[in-house]
Amino acid sequence: MDGGKGANKDFDYNLIKILDAVISAGNATKAAKRLSITPAAVSLALRRLQNHYQEELFVRGKEGLLPTAKAIEIHHHFRQVMELINGTFHSPVSKEESAQITVLGSDTIESYYFSQLYNNAVFERVLINHFSSHNMSRERVIEQLFTAECDLVISQEPISVPGIDNQMIDSFKSFVCICAANHMFSQLSQLTLHHFYSSRHALYKMNISNPMMGEDNGLLRDDSPYKGQREVGYCSDSVNSLVSTVERTSLIAIMPLKMALFYKNQRKYDIKFVQPPPELTFRSIQVYASWKKNSKNLAVITDVVSMLHTLSSFRR
């Protein structure tokens, strides 16, 4: 066989490291920064790597180079090999030392999910570290998974990149309006559109820009006949703070029914439920768990994800 495509003679395995960096980082520029080399050097390495394969490894898209199925296959095998090699550099640890997990998510993960698992045996055998993902970019979250800075990410979107597994652990489909127990709406069974849009709202928002008027494009379904603007009197990235504010003011808020029941019945907040206007149709909200497929803490991750999914199943 000659030295054309498909030849393995004098193959430079450092090229696979470049491929891994490009796929993990998302594009050549970020990969170059991560590897402390120039983007031109990354491009040259990818061209050299392509010479060894008959199938295309990348196609160009709007956001840069996109890996093909062949590139993802190579990347997956490389990751498996690197995990095996890296494992030889670590001293064996006891079962107790290895039984820990680092979770990345919003305050909702702690206040709503983990607080309902405190009596579970997992807290007797697993150290759970929770850190906020507030103001953290999607790229940074993915990087933390791949570098094992965190083991599990809980968010409203799956992380659809090679090497990451996802599982939907919860889905919110029914919504209610909450208000203080002494609110003038507390005796109503259902709000009108006038009630809804003439009231000031408490709004849960991860990234606050201009909270004076709340766009409902992210709240209402595309086929909803009404899409107005709510006047926002309080905007927070904390669900605990939002419910506490509603309890003590004349503000109202829209919440998933399951979560509202939790704050009323278990957290004992003095709030009332009122049905939203019948003209409004709300988007369902999904919650996903994401983790690295070959994580060294895979057994613990699987256990925690299973518990979270079971918890949500009992609260449909």
Automatic annotation (TrEMBL):
The Gene Ontology terms for molecular function here are: DNA binding; DNA-binding transcription factor activity
Gene3D superfamilies from the entry?
A: Periplasmic binding protein-like II, Winged helix-like DNA-binding domain superfamily/Winged helix DNA-binding domain
The UniProt keywords, alphabetically, are: DNA-binding, Transcription, Transcription regulation
Protein name, UniProt field = LysR family transcriptional regulator
> Which residues are in the HTH lysR-type domain?
11-68
Q: Cross-referenced InterPro entries, in alphabetical order?
A: LysR-type_TF, LysR_HTH_N, WH-like_DNA-bd_sf, WH_DNA-bd_sf
Q: Which family does it belong to?
A: Belongs to the LysR transcriptional regulatory family.
Q: Where is the signal peptide?
A: none
Q: Which Pfam families match?
A: HTH_1
